[in-house]
Amino acid sequence: xxxxxxSGGGLAQPGGSLRLSCAASGFTFRRYAMSWAxxxxxxxxxxxxxxxSDGSDIAYADSVKGRFTISRDNTKNRLYLQMNSLKxxxxxxxxxxxxxxxxxxxxGQGTQVTVSS
Length: 117
Known about the structure:
The protein is an all-beta fold. It has strands at residues 3-7, 10-12, 18-25, 34-39, 45-51, 58-60, 68-73, 78-83, 92-98, 106-107, 111-115. The model has no long low-confidence stretch (mean pLDDT 96).
C-alpha cells in the first residue's frame, strides 16, 4: 500500500533552517506530482509547495515563497523541503502528500516543526 514517511522535523530558532525528507513507497513515485502541506494547532491543512512528477513545474504558497525550496529525487523515491529563514508562524505538523493540490490522494503522518527561541 502507499506509504509516505516524513522525517527531519525538530526545534529551530527563528531565522534558522531545517530540511524535511519524505520516503515514498507503494506506488510509482516518478509518475506523480507531490506536495508538502502543514497543519498548525487549531487550524486546517495548508498547502505549502508542490512539484510536478518530473520536477518541471514548482509552486509555493505566498507564505513560504522565497524561503522554502521543494525538490525530489525520483531515483530514490524521495521528496524534500528545504526551509530557511524560519518564522514562529511556520510551526506546524508537516505532511508529505501525493498530488499537486488538495484534495490529496494520500499523505503521511507528518513531522513536527517548531520554531521558537
